[in-house]
Design brief:
The complex is a heterodimer of chains A (307) and B (378). Chain A is mainly α and 307 residues long. Chain A is built from twelve helices and no strands. Chain A has helices at residues 2-8, 24-63, 66-70, 86-117, 122-135, 139-153, 160-185, 188-196, 201-229, 233-238, 257-264, 271-305. The longest helix of chain A has 40 residues, at 24-63. Chain A is flat. The relative contact order of chain A is 0.13. By secondary structure, chain B is α/β, with parallel strands linked by helices. Chain B has two domains: 3-143 and 325-375, Periplasmic binding protein-like II (D-Maltodextrin-Binding Protein, domain 2); 144-287, 3-Layer(aba) Sandwich (D-Maltodextrin-Binding Protein, domain 2). In chain B, the strands form three sheets. In chain B, strands 1, 2, 3, 4, 6, 7, 8, 9 and 14 form a nine-stranded mixed β-sheet that branches. The radius of gyration of chain B is 24 Å and the shape is globular. Classes of the chains: A mainly alpha (307), B alpha/beta (378).
């Protein structure tokens, strides 16, 4: 028995025994795991790089054309070149802006209630649970719900504002959750210090808690916006696509980038249409990317300042 | 802290404004001054007065390319009218029209006058939407359906109704089957199996094509005419899907709108109706439409197509798409817009612009009837 143990032990060559190194088998397992993990990472990267490469290589051409950013598709058929995505970019931005104007105050105030006023109460738990459910609602369900209320019950027409309403349902839980997490991260000592100085609760929240978490809240808002800007189902159900510039969200059809892609998708055999589809896809990716970068920047600045 | 916060808010605001500014001051593109294909006699472009406003329409995707082209041409004449068309499908178009969401609808089939499944008949619902005035079916775009194939070395392929029915039913399985060989003497047909593609979505094209197979197939077609395919083959979504399938698969065949066959550079079979092989052209499709009879009465122009036509030089597989509009009952400004646009659509100039997109223009006899029906809208 002693002999077998001795045989497994690294041979002692008379010098100092080096115990910091790994045995052969463990080194092998370590390398194997590293290789596997790196491989999985690379595999996960493949579709991402592939998508980006395809979209960029096929779509960048039109984006360099000044008309892309300043002209609509009015009078441009799938067989003709020219025109731009101005109508769709503006439609997407307008609908996202209205969504944010409605969703952000509700989400932030809701989160403040959950963290500052309702912590531990039954009401807060119920609201929290409902928000969890809302997070899982697919966009098509949100769209159909708004369709049922806006068009079937109230008898309004399909307009951009209806899309914004359904996007609110999708954006609200995202922003509320992230704001809640950010507010929870604010140390209680800060609140207590404020109370100790005789500052009322509402002023503490307004001047101490929210400013401390501000960077995180803004990041959440940006990510929420990025999430809803690419949604397609509400656009298909709640507003018609228009090739013309329509800046009024309360009347008429409105263009948007996802529906612009959908419109020309069936005509990929025709070069002008195919070019526009890829360019619109790239534009949408760039818009979302821009929002994500902004969110990162805000997050970084706020981190530095909180030290 | 508050200064920093201001800075941060400022960064965000400036960046967001930058996005907006980048795309600010948008405009419509300059009219391309495209060559107008028709020798337009201005007399027939009735209703040339241009109102102002926006028209919203929705429906059949088979007429998407046609109506887009006509809208572009119409805007060269009437720059102050905005026309939006959403190609979401015939059924969706009629639903949105009946729900007063759009001003007119595009459909591959005329409004159904009989109620189905205990519901309300389409025509009745449409009349309700038009303040108890009947809605009218205006045949506007003729889209021939091509039998598009991909066969190496075969430039000219002739099929007839029974053979097409057998191919799409799956009883004729190889390209060198005696039925096909008999119609194509001297053509070197491969012994490869026939790969059939069909539309997996519910489609007006499938409905019209199966109606043709039933009428001209001589009993070889077993299914009922329907929007859903009941024959053999592999399903692909939308016209673009089946065209792509044939393009990328050797020894394959499908039925698809003519424009997709041309855009994808596919071979198009000629049809032998009993009066010799007829190649698919705008003219031969128009001739088949001339053989159609009105299905409705009075000013209703819904057509009953004669798929088994033996008229010389008539290509029998055609799809007629309609515009569905109120005869009365729309607000006055919408009525003016609908009349102005549809008049242009039905004019020789509007119809003439469709031939280069591989649609067939309406035969003159039907065109004048359609035009009269549009002028009667009030």
């Amino acid at each position: 028995m002693t002999t077998t143990l001795a045989a497994n032990r690294p041979a002692y060559d008379g010098k100092t025994l080096d115990l910091t190194g790994k045995s052969g088998a463990r080194a092998f397992r370590n390398t194997l795991a590293s290789v596997l993990i790196t491989l999985c990472f690379l595999i996960a990267l493949i579709p991402l790089v592939w998508i980006l490469w395809t979209v960029i290589s096929k779509g960048y051409g039109l984006l360099l054309d000044g008309g892309w950013w300043s002209e609509s598709q009015r009078g441009v058929t799938v067989r003709r070149e020219g025109g731009g995505a101005y109508h769709a970019i503006m439609g997407t931005l307008i609908m996202a802006l209205i969504t944010a104007v409605i969703a952000v105050p509700i989400a932030i105030l809701g989160a403040i209630y959950l963290v500052e006023y309702g912590r531990g109460t039954k009401a807060a738990r119920v609201v929290s649970f409902m928000i969890d459910i809302l997070t899982g609602v697919p966009s098509i369900v949100a769209a159909l719900f708004v369709y049922a209320v806006w068009i079937t019950v109230f008898g309004f027409n399909r307009v951009g504002f209806a899309v914004s309403l359904s996007l609110v349902l999708l954006m609200l839980p995202v922003v509320l959750r992230s704001t809640e997490e950010m507010l929870k991260l604010v140390p209680d000592e800060l609140r207590e210090a404020s109370y100790a100085l005789g500052v009322p609760k509402w002023k503490t929240i307004l001047k101490v808690v929210v400013p401390t978490a501000f960077g995180g809240i803004i990041t959440g808002v940006m990510l929420g916006l990025a999430r809803v800007m690419g949604e397609t189902a509400p656009l298909l159900i709640l507003v018609g696509y228009s090739k013309n510039i329509n800046l009024n969200p309360f009347e008429g059809f409105m263009g948007a980038l996802p529906t612009m892609i959908n419109q020309d998708r069936t005509e990929l055999a025709l070069q002008p249409a195919a070019d526009r589809v890829w360019a619109a896809a790239l534009t949408l990716i760039l818009l979302v990317l821009l929002l994500n970068i902004l969110a990162r920047l805000v997050a970084r600045f706020s981190k530095v300042n909180s030290k | 802290m508050s200064v920093n916060r201001l800075l941060r808010v400022g960064t965000v605001a400036v960046a967001s404004l930058g996005v907006l500014a980048l795309s600010a001051c948008g405009s419509d593109p300059e009219p391309t001054g495209s060559s107008s294909p028709s020798g337009s006699d201005s007399a027939s472009t009735g209703g040339a007065e241009c109102p102002e406003g926006t028209l919203n329409a929705e429906g059949s995707s088979a007429q998407k390319n046609a109506i887009e082209e006509v809208i572009a041409k119409y805007n060269e004449k009437c720059a102050d009218v905005t026309v939006n068309y959403n190609p979401t499908g015939s059924g969706a178009g009629i639903k949105q029209f009946n729900a007063s969401q759009v001003d007119f609808a595009g459909s591959d089939s005329a409004l159904k006058t009989e109620a189905k499944d205990g519901g309300e008949a389409e025509a009745a619902a449409a009349a309700k939407r038009c303040q108890n005035n009947p809605a009218v079916n205006l045949p506007m775009v003729i889209g021939p359906v091509a039998l598009a194939y991909n066969l190496d070395g075969v430039d000219k392929l002739v099929l007839d109704g029974p053979t097409a029915a057998k191919i799409f039913q799956g009883t004729v399985k190889t390209w060198n089957a005696p039925e096909i060989a008999k119609l194509n003497p001297g053509v070197n047909l491969p012994s490869a199996p026939i790969a059939v593609f069909f539309r997996s979505d519910e489609s007006g094209t499938t409905e019209n094509f199966t109606k043709y197979l039933e009428a001209a197939g001589g009993g070889a077609w077993k299914g009922e005419p329907a929007k859903k395919w009941s024959g053999t083959g592999a399903g692909k979504e939308k016209s673009a899907g089946v065209a792509e399938g044939v393009k990328s698969t050797k020894n394959s065949i499908t039925y698809v709108e003519w424009s997709y066959a041309v855009d994808n550079k596919l071979g198009v079979a000629q049809i032998d109706t009993g009066a010799g092989p007829v190649p698919l052209t705008a003219e031969s499709a128009g001739k088949a439409l001339a053989a159609a009879k009105p299905a409705g009465t009075g000013s209703d122009l819904a057509l009953k197509l004669d798929y088994a036509t033996k008229a010389a030089g008539a290509y029998p597989i055609i799809l007629v798409t309609y515009e569905i509009a109120c005869t009365k009952g729309l607000p006055a400004e919408k009525t003016a817009l609908v009349k102005s646009f549809l008049s242009y659509f039905a004019s020789t100039e509007g119809q003439g612009s469709l031939t280069e997109l591989n649609y067939a223009p309406l035969p003159e006899e039907i065109r004048t009837k359609v035009d009269a029906a549009i002028q009667a809208i009030s």
